[in-house]
Write a structure and sequence with these properties.
The chain is an alpha/beta fold. Helix content is 36%, strand content 15%.
Length: 236
């Protein structure tokens, strides 16, 4: 691993008091030199107080929103603050394992791929994978298939959280979606820019809705809307 390369890890946070400390710990121990950027999207469960108190100084940058604005806004804020060579999205729960960063970063630094973006696929199952609910997985795969049809890509997991980018690439993308429409929007915009996208398998340990999963049916319909909008009706 080239230790001179820095990975900016953008963590959007909303009401993750029970997991944020462990996520920071796992990112710090991932084996890659990191810049941790937390964006607190006006948490009301004590997460914000934890970041200002017990966890103060654990992240390199902590950005606070005065109102809840959505994951997409939090990501744009975090991307704009990134200074590393590469940028990756890390959710503030424990569904995704930062130990996979070393795998994700390889297509950027190997000298063979020259990647602009790398997606961590939950469905290229050569790694640890907790079985998810059938209908949730089916929905993800249907959205990925429609995204592929519209963008002429061949991804296996468009909706994955683990998307890693060259910093200059993601900072050049004019993102608009405020909530979970980020996934199909950024994919469509990368495809339109003809970016070189790679996929690698990752571990996945999904939460149930009872455990705090936040994406619902309304977000799936928004994703459908975004796939059509950003592949066919938005030029830049």
């Amino acid at each position: 691993m080239n230790e001179e390369k820095v990975l900016s890890v953008v963590i959007p946070v909303y009401n993750e008091r029970d997991t944020i400390a462990r996520v920071i710990e796992k990112v710090r121990g991932c084996g890659v030199k990191t810049e941790i950027i937390i964006v607190d999207d006006y948490s009301t469960d004590g997460t914000r107080e934890l970041l200002k108190g017990e966890l103060k100084g654990k992240a390199d940058k902590v950005l606070y929103h005065k109102v809840n604005r959505g994951k997409g806004v939090a990501l744009r804020h975090g991307f704009s603050a990134a200074t590393g060579d590469f940028v990756v999205v890390q959710d503030a729960d424990l569904e995704y394992d930062p130990s996979d960063f070393a795998r994700l970063i390889q297509p950027f630094i190997s000298g063979e791929c020259d990647a602009d973006a790398v997606y961590g696929s939950r469905y290229l199952r050569s790694n640890r994978f907790r079985v998810d609910g059938f209908y949730h997985e089916l929905g993800n795969k249907m959205l990925t298939t429609l995204s592929n049809i519209c963008s002429n890509l061949s991804l296996s997991d468009m909706e994955t959280c683990y998307k890693m980018f060259r910093r200059e690439v993601i900072q050049s993308v004019q993102l608009k979606e405020d909530r979970f429409g980020f996934e199909p929007e950024v994919t469509a915009r990368l495809a339109r820019k003809r970016c070189r996208i790679y996929e690698v398998p990752i571990s996945y340990h999904p939460r149930t809705f009872e455990e705090g999963k936040k994406i619902g049916v309304a977000d799936a319909f928004r994703a459908l809307y975004c796939i059509i909008k950003y592949n066919f009706f938005v030029k830049n």
